[in-house]
Amino acid sequence: MNDTTFRRELGQQLRVDSIRASAKAGSGHPTSSMSAADLMAVLLDGHLRLDFDRPDDPRNDHLVFSKGHASPLYYGMLKAAGAITDEELLRYRSFGSRLEGHPTPRIPPTDVATGSLGQGLPIGVGIALAGKRLDRLPYRVWVLCGDSETAEGSIWEAFEHAAHYGLDNLTAIVDVNRLGQTTETMLGWDVDTYAERARAFGWHAVVLDGHDLDAVEAAYTEAENSGRPTALFAKTKKGKGVRAVEDQPGKHGKPVADPERAIAELGGPRALSVRVAKPEFAMSTVDAQPAEARFPSWEVGEEVATRQAYGETLTALGESRPEVVALDGEVSNSTASALFAEAHPGRYFEMYIAEQQLVAAAVGLQARGWAAFASTFAAFLTRAHDFVRMAAISRADLRLAGSHAGVSIGPDGPSQMALEDLAMFRAVHGSAVLHPSDANQTALLVTAMADRGGISYLRTLRGKTPVRTGPDEDVRIGGSRVVRGSEDDRVTLVACGVTVGEAEEAAERLAADGVAARVLDCYSVKPIDAATLRAAARDTGVLLTVEDHWPEGGLGDAVLECLADFPDAVTVRKLAVRGMPCSGSPAELRAAAGIDADRIVATVHSVLGGRRNPFGETPEEERAIIRGEQGTSVGDPHDDTDPQSG
Amino acid sequence: MNDTTFRRELGQQLRVDSIRASAKAGSGHPTSSMSAADLMAVLLDGHLRLDFDRPDDPRNDHLVFSKGHASPLYYGMLKAAGAITDEELLRYRSFGSRLEGHPTPRIPPTDVATGSLGQGLPIGVGIALAGKRLDRLPYRVWVLCGDSETAEGSIWEAFEHAAHYGLDNLTAIVDVNRLGQTTETMLGWDVDTYAERARAFGWHAVVLDGHDLDAVEAAYTEAENSGRPTALFAKTKKGKGVRAVEDQPGKHGKPVADPERAIAELGGPRALSVRVAKPEFAMSTVDAQPAEARFPSWEVGEEVATRQAYGETLTALGESRPEVVALDGEVSNSTASALFAEAHPGRYFEMYIAEQQLVAAAVGLQARGWAAFASTFAAFLTRAHDFVRMAAISRADLRLAGSHAGVSIGPDGPSQMALEDLAMFRAVHGSAVLHPSDANQTALLVTAMADRGGISYLRTLRGKTPVRTGPDEDVRIGGSRVVRGSEDDRVTLVACGVTVGEAEEAAERLAADGVAARVLDCYSVKPIDAATLRAAARDTGVLLTVEDHWPEGGLGDAVLECLADFPDAVTVRKLAVRGMPCSGSPAELRAAAGIDADRIVATVHSVLGGRRNPFGETPEEERAIIRGEQGTSVGDPHDDTDPQSG
């Protein structure tokens, strides 16, 4: 068999295996696999350099299936490369199988999970960035994209950043099969327009017939030598090779109706194996040596913004840990990652205002073993929610820092206020959610994040807060701090971040009124310090949670969770931001939101029955406000009470 | 004063007012305002047709400040147009002022909130779509964009969709001032490359000097007559006109240091007013008449997927309510919005695989009074989280439907499973979060959504569920359904969606064991039916929540919230998805996640002390599992227990 014949046969085998695997599973996307089979046959047999026996070899090329639904094709490639058996292939999509409906790192050499479209290419940018700027190894990153997913803006973020960073080690192979799930794509087979777009974004672009093996061969060679990130726009046919489904609408995401006939039409099963090229270059070991670092710490009583402590600590980590890298979404002077950028310019990556690419690049960098910290305003991390969700499925080790938490940012207004970030990150599988109240806590938690696997989120404050924690205190993920407490405590104030100061002030005033209040700083919102909270519940019976966040999903819910099966009656009141904030000073906004010392004191008195609510509300009204029955009612969803009238 | 002199003076006035307002506030973005002042002066005086006295006139043009941080410029325009006084201008950013740090609809004629970059243009696409396809009025949509925000992929989603829908009524004015917050943009002043990109995306593009008033005049005229969506790439200088800040780095987002001197340099304050042109065309009233609609209902006992009920009900609503429109992210055959598309093709908009543009278009459509329902897989709505967050600040009326909830989708794997959507939508200001378990419930809730203001989210199931609810039952936002119950109930099973069936089965088996269990279907997760839940807590003392969702932020947390100040001891156990799922059948995956009838029965017996846990766990282990202390520990964030071993 000559090269071309072998590749043609291999392409047919990949089609046959896609049909077999999805027929056996009773679901899957064979037609989306068949369009790209020739593209992948040529890649596997001649261009990919990947040692399937040593998937962790740092010299390996990387193959990312951005169109993750073409998993039958991917698994067919693994079989052809000898990485899995035919038996395993036929356990596709069955319970417990490593061959899930969409690829995940459970099956090597898969770097990251795909299946949410538009993510593989921006993650590929991160891997390619690692190759060019950090690993400095000549591996290549190949990303198979669907044409439908070019409608995702994240694809164009990837195009722009790849060109900006000169990632000539990155090749996007776009399978232009024209047909989406329900309809034709916006551009159909207009590969020239795709190419024009890629060129306008600074890429080298090639248009080709994706079923012409010589054209595919030539295109890969061109990509390898273009000196620029290169996109191949390959005109293909969905379901290619089987008349019943080829280029037919309505054939997306389902097994081929008559698989035996389809397989016969493709020439029957084959048993080809490919000797995939291995990376052969020698590696020079250039391991950077960790240096002594002076970690920052602050005197108790100093006023420091926790975002500043984040930046300073990250910079020190950059000294002691050569694997630490940082990225930011063009707000590094706000998040304080600018300090790292200045100290370690070679390990800082500016991702501009493109939060999806920001997180995707971090996921790509960690796939190569780099400890990536990515930062922006916490509110804007919502932009990357789908990427964070998928990062958990990728089993990624990801450190995210969001600054400018809550109404306490003040005059910039609600668009810049993170009020849902705790909820978003608590509901990420295996996450840690940290919201320190002072600089020393922050420093210790940033270091703990560096040591931790999985997804860790640090929420920092715009404004300065007084340092309360000594530099040698036991601050850890899962911990908390008793700010004040005694045996006589009748109520526990549970706070985090900026509300710790409000709770402390409230406790002072309550003490003057003869009410002893415990103050807990729950800087670790997830995992939360259940033992300390349950002890407080036992000791005081009443807990008031106070957070600069919407009432749902944040500190209050985390506290309620760990008291869910508490054996005795406990009263928990959640103080949180219930009305839509506006601009104002931090103090004005905390007062309007009802998360300041005044509201804490009033609520405690009201709960303990000691005194009238100074806001003039009846007990019923007050409970309704605190329980959130105002502002979330059906009739008044916008809750546009003029904050001045309050 | 001739036209050009007037416009020059007006531009200077806008600069002066930007400096004055931000100096008074002590914060804000005057330099980002000054670069676009000439562009906006010419727009206001000659091209914008907007009756500021009648901001709700449907014939008005729309002006969207996608670069919302240029709010001082925007408010300066409102002052020049006579919509606000100088006194109000100087209350910029003060507490309670309508002139927030970033524009919101609190100040007319603002359609939507901006301030998260990259959102104004895709929302403008929605407004322009309303103008072309629904209102059929010749108003124009002008969007002022920053150059930095073109790094957001959502901008390119907007470019692609505007061209696809032929929105020649849309003009993007890109203020290319070169400087971002911390650094130069990727393209700097390379306006030609910007234009090349826009053209490749199907737009007409004009490059110009944004301080040359004649060039600006010519460009607007060109935009009005190009017959295509048109982008102006205007080369400008940040801080234009004041030497201390003009084209200087480090001058972003802060008041000018010496405002008096800067104002003097600009020629001092002016008091110009602009007679902004009013839309003058006559409107033909073409109000569509509502038709009689046959709303779907199903017999109790039928098996129907709730997504199917969504599509059928939406289609009926389309008959009875001419203002209802639908959009989908290229999965309309999965979400069942395809039924609406078929019945009402003129009111259906295919948004392809671009969830940010999907939600943004819905926000734009509702700004013109259309009742937009947008659907895609629930998991992929995370892609639009930032747009949903901002929609709440926009006081938008938005209906979102997410299909394919939870592990119960089966073989496609975790990338397609929504496991965080309840948490995400609960933490949206003023939201309703609905998760019906059967078709009749779904139909009634979809109708309720149409009547409701604010943001409503409906979560639907991929698989069929039995119809339990009669078509005439009282199903409402904030309600719940007692599936079964008696005076003897010793435990309450609280479920929603697919877990209602598991709870029902568990209750049957518990009854056989002599344990009476109440089953509540909490189809309204927010607002939740607190009265019924509190009654159940009073009657049974033990509640078990069961949800096909991560443990955080969903049904369990909502239940705990409304029992937070319950006067007696209550035990709540949350069953939820704690390990990372894989592919498999729905039943296998629910069993592995511990949210099936088996686990419910076992947990109830264990809580009530009646029987040994059949999974062989010690009581402590079981509690740890249920409380989530496994799978979220610091040491094992990935929680990659092989699901087969369980």
Mind sketching the topology for me?
The structure is a homodimer of 646-residue chains.
Chain A: H1 3-25, H2 30-34, H3 37-44, E1 62-65, H4 71-80, H5 86-89, H6 120-135, E2 141-146, H7 153-164, E3 170-176, H8 191-200, E4 204-209, H9 213-225, E5 230-235, H10 259-265, E6 303-305, H11 306-320, E7 324-328, H12 332-335, H13 338-343, E8 348-350, H14 355-367, E9 371-377, H15 385-393, E10 398-403, H16 421-426, E11 432-434, H17 439-451, E12 455-459, E13 464-466, E14 481-484, E15 491-495, H18 499-512, E16 517-521, E17 524-526, H19 530-540, E18 542-546, H20 555-562, E19 571-575, H21 586-593, H22 597-608, H23 619-626
Parallel strand pairs in A: 1-2, 2-3, 3-5, 4-5, 7-8, 7-9, 9-10, 10-12, 11-12, 15-16, 15-18, 18-19
Antiparallel strand pairs in A: 6-13, 11-17, 14-16
Helix pairs in contact in A: 1-3, 1-4, 3-9, 6-7, 6-14, 11-17, 14-15, 18-22
EC number (chains A, B): 2.2.1.1
Cofactor (chains A, B): Mn(2+); Mg(2+); Ca(2+); thiamine diphosphate
Organism (chains A, B): Amycolatopsis samaneae
